[in-house]
Specification:
Layout: H1 2-36, H2 49-64, H3 66-76, H4 81-88, H5 95-108, H6 112-121, H7 126-134, H8 142-156
Helix pairs in contact: 2-3, 2-5, 5-6, 5-8
Length: 161
């Protein structure tokens, strides 16, 4: 009986040491994988510093209030909610980009999908270039886009500056 107790004690001790070593390995792996992949800094490149700053701010707002963010785009920019959610899950689409694509579409009286496709084809020179290629006869509708953003910020009761 004494031998059996010693074996069980030894087995439990070995398992505890193994589990502890495994947990440390997992923890180190999680930390190193989190620090190894840093996203590049966000740059909307609309050609307007005020718009760029608001889009960067949306990247902080949307993760904290995802339902309000998605609802705003769906309701006031006339884009199906499911499309907004799916677009936000695509690699390379920050919340500011999702908002801007749909706001630009509204300002140009085009479907959001058309703007998204245009950006997918060529976004090398940022949103300004996307807008110029979509509507070469028009300038970037900065005032309309600013107005849409001001309205959204008012709906969220979020300060602009």
């Amino acid at each position: 009986m004494k031998r059996s107790w010693v074996r069980w004690s030894l087995l439990i001790a070995c398992l505890a040491v193994s589990c502890g070593a495994w947990a440390q390995t997992v923890d180190r792996g999680a930390v190193s994988s989190q620090t190894a992949v840093a996203p590049p800094p966000y740059a909307a490149q609309t050609g307007d510093a005020w718009l760029d700053a608001r889009l960067k701010d949306l990247n902080a707002y949307a993760p904290r209030y995802p339902d309000a963010f998605v609802d705003e785009i769906a309701r006031y920019l006339d884009v199906p909610r499911g499309y907004v959610v799916a677009l936000g899950q695509q690699p390379g689409w920050a919340p500011g980009d999702v908002y801007f694509a749909c706001a630009l579409a509204k300002a140009l009286a085009r479907p959001c999908r058309e703007v998204v496709r245009a950006r997918a084809r060529d976004d090398e020179d940022g949103w300004r270039g996307v807008a110029e290629r979509l509507a070469p006869e028009q300038r970037m509708p900065v005032q309309a886009l600013r107005s849409l953003l001001r309205t959204s910020y008012a709906h969220w009761a979020r300060p602009l500056d």
